[in-house]
């Protein structure tokens, strides 16, 4: 599953849900949490399920961001979507503990969001839960929980590196946070590029204008693909000749480079 772009769509908006069918986001996240006022949550659940059954998104991943597990609404959300086969993934805000029980109960893939002090401390327990396929985070909620400055945590390299490190450890996707300044597409692109350099595989987006940029940045470039093909060919030839490391374009290439190259080609396909 490729998750270069994960688009949040308010579950209250029939217009936006219908529009999302036409968009090129790899993954759609229907939002029952922040995008829905408390008095509208029941109506949003009913409307969402009706539209999911009616519309066709092809093979794209369909997720629902439920309410925090500390709230009763989350269990109403989960009960509603558990019976809908088209929805294959649950996005969990403010995740703080092992989530294996939820995967066992629903059979749905899980994407926890690290948004609290406890969640950050317990991130390894969360990410290694059964059923977790990706992890992301929310800078605003996290900074509020920590009593810090949002602008600082929005760019905090320690938090970004910790999340991607744990994700890689347990072989799940690290997906970068949302970017709220919709008019600043250059800033959005820069943040995507920085996240990719850290090891993130995609970005959560909140507007259609961000989708193509995210897909472009998190796809292998032409140069990356050409490099990967050369490395794979040269390394496999060297292996047949009994060499564990080879010289390519005056640079040493070993098994680590080979694995990186294979990941690039697999992502492309």
TrEMBL record:
Its EC number is 4.1.3.34. Keywords: Lyase, Magnesium, Metal-binding. The keyword Magnesium applies. One of its GO terms (molecular function) is citryl-CoA lyase activity. It holds the Pfam family HpcH_HpaI. Residues 4-208 form the HpcH/HpaI aldolase/citrate lyase domain. Its cofactor is Mg(2+). GO terms for biological process: oxaloacetate metabolic process. InterPro entries: Aldolase/citrate-lyase_domain (IPR005000), Citrate_lyase_beta/mcl1/mcl2 (IPR011206), Pyrv/PenolPyrv_kinase-like_dom (IPR015813), Pyrv_kinase-like_dom_sf (IPR040442). PANTHER family: HPCH_HPAI ALDOLASE_CITRATE LYASE DOMAIN-CONTAINING PROTEIN (PTHR32308:SF0), LYASE BETA SUBUNIT, PUTATIVE (AFU_ORTHOLOGUE AFUA_4G13030)-RELATED (PTHR32308). This is Citryl-CoA lyase beta subunit homolog (CitE). It comes from Saccharolobus solfataricus (strain ATCC 35092 / DSM 1617 / JCM 11322 / P2) (Sulfolobus solfataricus). The gene is citE.
